[in-house]
Design brief:
Elements lengths: L1 E6 L2 E6 L2 E4 L9 H7 L4 H25 L5 H34 L6
Antiparallel strand pairs: 1-2, 2-3
Helix pairs in contact: 2-3
Length: 111
């Protein structure tokens, strides 16, 4: 269902919940426009996504992987590698969140 309303000789169209407001210059931004406008935040967003995938994969298959260890030394080595990976993922997530918060807490003119 499409409604058209004329406002001060500018057209405002409402289409199934999406607003295109020519009067105010507000239009729905597609993914390409968003990526162009927020290119500096993309590495932090990708890093957070990688950390999330790491934690999901670790939760699903990490414990089963440790149960297949042949010797106590192999298990200890795998535990140390896992501990280093967890520590690195926490550091990466903290740095990425810090970057995103500092980036979006500033006024838009400084981005």
């Amino acid at each position: 269902m499409t409604e058209s309303i004329r406002v001060v000789s500018r057209l405002v169209t409402v289409q199934s919940g999406t607003w295109s407001m020519a009067l105010l210059g507000i239009e729905p931004a597609g993914p390409t426009q968003w990526l162009k406008a927020n290119r500096g935040a993309l590495p932090s967003i990708l890093a957070l996504g990688a950390v999330a995938v790491f934690w999901v994969v670790g939760a699903v298959g990490g414990i089963g992987y440790l149960s297949e260890a042949n010797s106590p030394m192999a298990m200890l080595t795998e535990l140390y590698v896992g501990l280093a990976s967890v520590a690195a993922s926490i550091i990466v997530a903290t740095l990425a969140l810090n970057h995103l918060v500092s980036r979006y807490s500033r006024p838009q003119t400084h981005r």
